[in-house]
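dumping the sequnces here before i forget
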Amino acid sequence: MNDFRNQDPALLRGMTQRRLGRRDAFRLAGLSAAGLALAACGVQGKRVAKPSSSAQAQSAVQQYWSGKVKNGHVDFANWPLYMDPKQPELKQFTDQTGITVTYKEVIQENAGWFAKIQPLLAAGQSIDYDLMVVTNGIQFTQLVELGYLVPLDHGKLPNFAANAGARYKNESYDPGNVYSIPWASGMTGIAYNPKYVDTPPTSYSALWDPKYKGKVGMMADSQEIGNFGMFLLGIDPEKSTPADWEKAAAKLKEQRDAGIVRKYYDQGYVDPLGKGDIWLCQAWSGDIFQKNISEGTDLQFVIPDEGATIWTDNMMIPKTAANPVDAITLMDFFYDPKVAGGLAEYINYVTPVPAAQAVIKSDADAASGDDKKTLTEIADSPLVFPSDADYAKLRSYRNFKNTDEQKQYENIFQAITTA
Amino acid sequence: MNRGLFRGRGLQIYTWLVIAWLVVPIAVMILFGFNDTRGRFNTTWQGFTFKWYGQLFEIGDLTQALVNSLLIAVLTMVIAGVLGSLIGLALGRYRFRGAALLTLVMFAAISCAEIVMGASLHSLFITLGVPEGFPTIVVAHVMFSISFVAVTVRARVMTLDTSLEEAARDLGANTWETFRLVTLPMIFPGVLAGSMLAFALSIDDFVITNFTAGSTVTFPLWIWGVTRVGIPPQVNVMGTLIFAGGLLIAVGNIIAARRRRA
Amino acid sequence: MRTLRARLTPYALIFPGGLWLAIFFVVPTVVMLSLSLQSGNVVDGFAFTFNWHSYVDGVTTYHDQIVRSLLYGLAATVIQIVIGFPVAYWIAFKGANRKSVYLFLVLLPFLVSFVLRTISWQYLLSDNGILLGPLRDAGLLPQDFRILATPAAVIGGLSYNFLPFMILPMYVALERIDPRLLEAAQDLYASRVQTFLRVVLPLSLPGVFAGVLMTFVPASSDYVNASVLGGTNTTMIGNVIQNQYLINQDYPIAAAMSFTLMAVLLVGIFAYARALGTEDVLEVAAR
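..and the predicted 3d for all of it:
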């Protein structure tokens, strides 16, 4: 917003009059030339070569971690709705290790977060955080390609080695957990408000149903919305081709132009869903659960029959972190089954620690009444502990061969969401 | 005397309706600062409470954001206040080559779309590899405030009588003494008004800040960030307190102006 | 010596502030122009290649958003004139000794953060919110009626947020009209409507003109209202620029769109000024 609080007629005259002499024009041109000279250098990118052998990778780890010591503090950047606001786990961590934690919910979307930190990391500057959580996908790949992540010293991750589920030790986007270990996984499915939606949706086609005109929320993220379009058409997003993307985009465009979509959301869909502005929408599993807990609402989440997207949010250390030792200590702390159990009880996302299920069950046994019921539900929930059959229905985002392919994908789907 | 053409009963009601329209969102903001909500979604009325005023600083990052905003606004007020006043003084008092160019640049800065200014500064910083953060926000805020201060001060300077300064010099004051003892006190109302304007512009700025903040968070940026998961009542309380502060200053001004007139 | 010093004084005074404006306002605009002519991506870096395609691609892809922004800006400006003129008129002619109080009330929204005000409207206009909910329950509105996530909500938000910028200059122009002119017109048997059309309206035009300048630019380049109050097909060019710079990091397209927006607004302002004969109207305003 431009503020023109003081009204000065001379100002307007200056804006609209030709007063600039030739001499002034030369001066302005000179200044511009200086700017142009400065600008011609371009914006730097720094792709780094991948370590070609495990020995090389190992030496990179040693080189980075040698001489690094505990400083007693860690700055942690995470997404909203990813921890009990009272932060019991962090308090326990501080009691146990003496390391204090500043926890900020500053990450609202992967791309926006990456765009914020990339210029800082490119300049070798601190991003003010030692630990951050980024989803597998385009930005994670870029962080790795640009060499912005610290190679993890697995000697400092004993809990991870002991307690992480096999699936989470061998993720295709970071084989061998060189740069990251999972924070939590989650599904993108359909959430609905039973106050307005009588028949629980079982298929993606519900989001294309004209009777929900103006009451459907979709996500603005091109990977999320692209996957929904492909699931509707029975296409496996992991194996999709550019032709498939076009087909999915055509479907999504149809949905938009029919007025069915109300808006393309980031994480902001939760509140409108509760208020009834939207009746059903694309949603992340745990968000709905937390909204219900904190507000007493009765929102529902379903995995459609066609399958759903599974993603993993990963903890990682940016290369300019001031307190890497403290950060990796905290990362490992979350792999203590008790801690993982407590966290899953609150956030209701898939925990990478299978042993947490037993912890939640014993918590349930110790509890009574409503708490007991809730905890038992969580321990048995396929959204927190998916079975192998559940996993078989879940698909990841598409991995891109190169930046051009990724741009092509983004352009196709952003044409839908930013129209 | 009855000025104007129409009796204006209808117009009066109309004016009050428009004012009501302007004030409605503010009333909502203030009201929900008193909402006894339990979750993080402060959207349905659940009863009256004062507790958020007691727990005003419970949310660490929010407090930090507000402190950042205040610090940035004060720095902007001081730096833009000084630099802008000097320009205003020069433009109001002297005729010199380049004055037209400077005026043009200032008017361009005032009338330029905010997003364009933010985008160009962001372009500069990423090109030079300057890390964005607190200092770059201050730089940006000073940049867009200078012109407003200069215009305000120039308007004041132009109304002044130069004979007082001549008299001071005739009485033996040197340039600095004349400036300090005569010129400055005379233009001070303009400087004060300009600086306060700079403060107000800075503390409320969202667009340019969004482009130059890096990972630093100010009050408007924090609010923007949490809209997707629900705004805690503390934001309403802080908004209310800022509103009340502005109200007090403005009412004080009006009363002072009345008294001077009387 | 003294004259040299006197001649240098203004330059010494403007030097620090002028330098600040040069480095952080003029130079960045040029850097942005340069960026718009580069090509590349974040991972491999961007290099200057005289890549005009960013402009071609940008305008092809986003012409809808550009046109929409100008239309929304125009609509908001017209609404503001219609809503604001009677208010400015009433305060100027009937405000008596309470004028400053009324003006202050009009300016009240500026004491609350712009973002917060806009979010407040999102809350107020929600489908089952305190405004629409009861109306729908009473059967006064169709079931699928909504304001939020429509162009009307965005234009309404823009009109709301910048209205004081429109009222203020119109008030200043109206306030300057000598009441004796009105008396004279009526003494010459002009009807009230005639007096209004022939005397008040022409004399208030400079204020309207100034108000348009002050509201059209921020309204048509805004992205906050569209993202908070808008839905599908309400994206403005500001959203595109914001998105390309701060999310996608496709800097050349972002810079090209930003530069295009600046050029379009500048051309618009100058054309508008010329059409209205700025000199005359502004001379009146200056008095």
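Chain A has two domains: 54-185+311-378, 186-309+395-417.
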